[in-house]
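Q: Hi! First time doing this. I have a protein sequence and I read that you can turn it into a structure. Is that right? Here it is:
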Amino acid sequence: MTLDEETIDLINDFIRETETSLESIDESIFNLRQYVFAIPDDFEFDMFITHFRGLNVPLYLESIQSINRVVHTIKGISAFIDLNILNAYCHTAEELTLDLSNGKVFLNKDAYEIIELLPIILNRFIENIKEVYNDKEINVKKEIESIKNCRKKLILLMGKEKIHFDELSGKDMGRVRDSRKALKVTIDFDQYNKLVNQFQAFSQDSLSLINNSELASHITSEISNGFTEHLDGLIMSAQSKIILSRYPRIVTDLGSSMDKDINFLVPRNDAMAAPDVWDKCHNALVHIVRNAVDHGVESKDDRKKIGKTPDGTIEMSIYEDFKNIYISINDDGAGIDAEKVSEIALSKGIISKNELDNMTKTEKQKLIFKPGFSTKENATEVSGRGVGMDAVHKEIEINLNGKIILESSIGVGTSILLEIPKNETLSECIVFGDDKHTYAIPVVEGIEFLECNPKYVNSVLKKSTIYTEGNMELPIIDLFKHIHKDEYKDNKIDFLPIIKIGIGKNSYGIVVPRIKGHERINIDRRKNIKKAVLDEGVVFGYGLTDPITIILDLDYISNLF
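A: Yes, that's right. Below is the predicted 3D structure, encoded as structure tokens:
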């Protein structure tokens, strides 16, 4: 059936609103985990209601009702635009969420698993509707039957009893039902960032007082390291909760609904990013992870046929350098067939034949990120992505000004690397200078300190200087003489500190007046705080210290050699 433009517009509006609604109920689903009641063999309602008194009833009701509102809205609109299978699923789910909010049944493990699957299954509908503007290809008979059976079982257990929430309000609130269950937490990003900034300001003020005291240098260094370790621990503890509370659930639940066994691993999680970074790129990561499960990792039977283990693997690694956060998502699935992808893009008018003829394999594979790219074909025939991946491009490359790097081999798997620039970040820095100027550089791999003994300083063709102590042949530069030519034109580098940067043949050294210490600094790279009396290119950003510290760009410095 051909749809008119008005209907297509209605469906597109419905898709956008539903995607927003589904994002909003994640927190409610997390909140409900603490209300799961393990049913004992000798279940009695009076015993159950005694345990229920230990709960935060208003939070429970608000959480379940917010989920119910989303399901009810989707049900109503889906009926209006003839998405009948989606309507049937939402109608069945709403019966359960209504019974839970009215006290007719309680939340057991089976009911919670059904609620936890709601956004996963509803997103399956949305992704299919985006392609074909109907839901006829979605089969949720098993899921609907599961909801009905769960509801019948709970109603049978409750008998004629009912939970009267108004009688429970005001009781001893806040106790967790089953202490054996691990809770997933949500984080107020604004409050968390405020806490981090307050701790950083306190540590910087304290260190300034300590450095001006007469304490021995090893004691001040030990105190400084203690502050840094505590701040790092504060950041990393929150980051681990953010990562581990979101994506394993997506992999487990979506994989289970598709009869796939998939392991989700985080082999590396050591980037010091503020939580709002994860909040901003969460939408992109959800699309990538869901697509890795849905279209990347093969079914158990298909994997066995080609000699792979029945269970697949998705890995998320998070790391950083002084300029960027890197998030890589790797799967060991089917890979992306560049020719299939380019054929579909060509047929949909996303690219022209001339453009296609000049594309590399990787460029063809990256067409999956183009707006409008999708496929009606079975994922194993196209060997990969398509659904919703244009959102990844929008979030990372447009909203966050980052890069997407893709590598994929048919039958081996796909690797997607997100490179996200740090506009404002906490970085470990080396602070140096004299009484007139203070600068800092971010700590990178291979940094060490030397003393510039003049007997090892050699000039090469009067253009460059090499430091040759031991087996070393280290190019060096008097940094202050370079960036302040008039002030330091008569400067001598004898016995001044050298900061050696890098490893092996790519290493170099900068001679500075004095090393003032290490400090974890909040760096703003937007360069709108103050203007340094320096070349624009040498300024990496500004440390939000008192007074403000100018952070120098290591890329600029390395290009001087």
